[in-house]
Write a structure and sequence with these properties.
CATH architecture of the largest domain: Up-down Bundle
CATH class of the largest domain: Mainly Alpha
Number of helices: 12
Distance between the termini: 28 Å
Number of strands: 13
Shape: elongated
Order of helices and strands: HEHEHEEHEEEEHEEEHEHHEHHHH
Structural class: alpha+beta
Oligomer: single chain
């Protein structure tokens, strides 16, 4: 009996500490302050179409994962806070084009956002077919695709790039800017195999689909490095090296649409979400206290702890909060209230059957548990399905909603039960009469 009261005090102390942590971090904009999504903080939304037509079906998934990683690396290099980069497939049941979604909170200049993504170079190495050395382009200057043989060696295998001048040679060309690229272990082996088997053949180097040069392979190159030359200025070569270091795209992308959300609009949306959450909580609290009295007060206390725990989880995971996410949070609060109502009604039935307060509390929780469990499992299944097949907005809602369902189980079943038992222990008969007069018994 003493342990239950002691545990209740520990819960309240822990809740106070967590609440203070949440308040301090948000007030001071500390490391764990809330991360707001594009619709709440303002920023830019960019949508690109990924061209996978030249990518083998078996490699599309890996290529798109690499594409996402490259864009994340480029965006993070500019210090954008909490960017969202993800790949989606449009069409019915995901049968359309692959699209790259990039959200940049705080960046409200679309041109600046596009510049951050930049024209990340697509680097390719292709062999010139024997006998086609003088037929690389037609009379109009367009590349003759039939003159080249794909080697599978692309910028995906790069480990680094740096600006050089003339590759250390002497003479007039010693001041020509070039870019030396180094391959990772897998790329070095592939490059070594290509150059070993094709000595005397031309190896064409393409950047964004344009032919830069087609040097003849003089000897096998086994050190895992190559020289990219062209009509570069020093600035162009330096920029190319920088972009290659940030990551060459494994598949080409094309900007399809842009959207800007102003900081003022985002701030208003965040304020409206907070007001809606507070108003909803206040209305629910008044209802629970007026209808169930003491158990209602306990339910409100459990809900307050639930809100504190959720906010702390948002900070620590962290969860990027969006308007859809806030809607999921408010809905999960309603589910937590629903669990408390089921518990209170079951307790009412147990008291009506003549049981003492403590036993009525215990049996009420036991009888309510099956309905609460089944309801929450159904909601979790819905959250998982929404997260699995939904778009980015729907996934944000599903994540917060599913997390809220799990935490509400803790607050409704464990915390509420502990508080009620702590109030009922050793004052069983008086408390039973108090419950009877407070509306649990009619």
């Amino acid at each position: 009996m003493f342990k239950i009261r002691y545990f209740s005090v520990l819960i309240l102390i822990a809740a106070a500490i967590i609440g203070f942590f949440v308040w301090r971090e948000q007030a001071s904009h500390g490391r764990f302050a809330f991360k707001l999504g594009l619709d709440l903080s303002g920023g830019s939304h960019l949508e690109y179409v990924a061209d996978t037509s030249a990518t083998p079906e078996s490699q599309i998934s890996d290529s798109l994962s690499a594409l996402q990683a490259v864009i994340e690396r480029r965006v993070n290099a500019f210090g954008v806070g909490e960017p969202v980069v993800q790949v989606e497939r449009g069409g019915v049941v995901g049968t359309g084009q692959y699209r790259l979604i990039v959200e940049l909170p705080g960046v409200t200049d679309v041109n600046q956002a596009v510049a951050m993504i930049g024209q990340t170079p697509t680097l390719e190495f292709k062999l010139v077919k024997p006998g086609m050395e003088n037929q690389l382009a037609d009379a109009s200057g367009f590349l003759n695709s039939s003159a080249f043989e794909d080697t599978g060696l692309t910028g995906t295998y790069l480990s680094g790039a740096q600006l050089q001048f003339g590759n250390g040679s002497s003479g007039a060309l010693s001041t020509q800017p070039v870019v030396q690229v180094s391959f990772n272990a897998q790329g070095a082996k592939l490059f070594s195999d290509i150059t070993t088997k094709n000595v005397g053949h031309e190896l064409a180097i393409f950047l964004d689909g344009k032919l830069l040069s087609a040097p003849v392979i003089q000897t096998p190159i086994t050190n895992g490095s190559a020289i990219i030359s062209g009509r570069f200025t020093a600035a162009d070569a330096k920029s190319l090296a920088t972009n290659l270091n940030l990551g060459a795209l494994p598949v080409p992308i094309e900007l399809a649409s842009t959207q800007t959300i102003g900081a003022t609009l985002g701030s208003e949306a965040a304020h409206a979400g907070v007001v809606a959450a507070l108003l909803g909580f206040a209305i629910l609290s008044v209802f629970m206290i007026l209808w169930y009295r003491v158990p209602g007060i306990v339910a409100v206390a459990a809900l307050a702890l639930y809100v504190v725990l959720m906010l702390a989880l948002f900070m620590l995971i962290p969860v990027v909060l969006t308007a859809a996410g806030l809607a999921g949070f408010v809905l999960s609060v309603g589910l937590a209230v629903d669990a408390n109502i089921l518990i209170a009604e079951r307790m009412k039935e147990e008291l009506a059957a003549g049981k003492e307060a403590e036993q009525a509390i215990r049996d009420g929780f036991i009888r309510a548990w099956a309905a609460i469990r089944d309801s929450n499992i159904a909601h979790l299944i819905a959250a998982v399905i929404l997260f699995w097949i939904g778009t980015s907005v729907i996934r944000g809602f599903a994540l917060v909603f599913g997390l809220g369902v799990l935490v509400s189980l803790l607050s409704a079943v464990t915390i509420s039960r502990t508080f009620l038992l702590a109030l009922g222990i050793n004052v069983e008969r008086p408390f039973g009469r108090f419950l009877m007069n407070s509306g649990l018994r009619k």
